[in-house]
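S.,

As promised, the zinc ion run. Input:
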Amino acid sequence: MITLNSEKGLISVENWDDITSRPGFVANLNPREHTLKAVIGQYQFKEKIPCGLSNCHTPHNKGYIVSTEGGAETNIGKDCGRAYFGIEFENHARKYERDLADYENRLALHRFSFQIETIRELVHELRSGERGGDWCYKVAQPLHASNRGVPEIISRKIGAMLKAQQRVLSISRQATAAETEALEAVEGRPVPRPHTIEDPIAEIRGLDALDPENNLKQLLVLKIEEIKEFEGKEIDSMSSKELRQWAKWADTFDEALEKAQTAIVAHRALLTPENLEPSDIANFDAYLGRLTEPRGIPSGSRS
Ligand SMILES: [Zn+2]
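Predicted complex:
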């Protein structure tokens, strides 16, 4: 497919015949008799197409469609463009590429505008309800923060597990004399006493929920608030740079929402007393008790 920048704006062309059948098309154009007016298209095909310049005709897989002041059009390779039309050609080629990028970015942003309402509805749904995103975020925070109702020994342990990408909860204890001797036998060297060993207690499911990239506040609240700034902008009066930046930004929403859904699943797996109750740790009960009372927290303002 070729996108042509014509007087009627950018139009898509499916095949090469659509180019050669255009009224001004010349398959044998003498560059000495013409002045370049614009680069109006760029093509890339599997088969090679002979260059349209009368003194060249080299077959190319890719090249440009150009128009001249006299109204003629032809196809040329990049090197020919440079050789026969110089810097002018390069400026026109850049302008064509910029116009095309602007056009595609504008199209993407208009499409995104139409999706905003749906995105907000989906986010509202994800945040609200029993064990919804808001509940998940609020209840998971204490697990890796200090003084938020989870015993320090647990929150510190979880912090260390996250850092080490470890999913098995283990508890340190002093090795028995027999264990230390057995270890010495395996390693073939003396082991200093007292020796500490880690006993695996349980595998914690859903610990990924606490990874920074699964932060539900970021994915479902802050990310959505960014839309307000976009809504204050006029797509059609954005500069090329703005179009590029906003189109790139709009492109991140699908991934963020998918990530949020996966993160909620992980939170729900994580936040059950069965999953978090591998041993008797004093004062953890109060926190675990909260997990079985999943009061739906209204998701507040639909930002
Ligand atoms: Zn050529």
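The radius of gyration is 32 Å. The pocket of zinc ion is lined by residues 51, 53, 56, 58, 76-77, 80 (CB under 6 Å).

- D.
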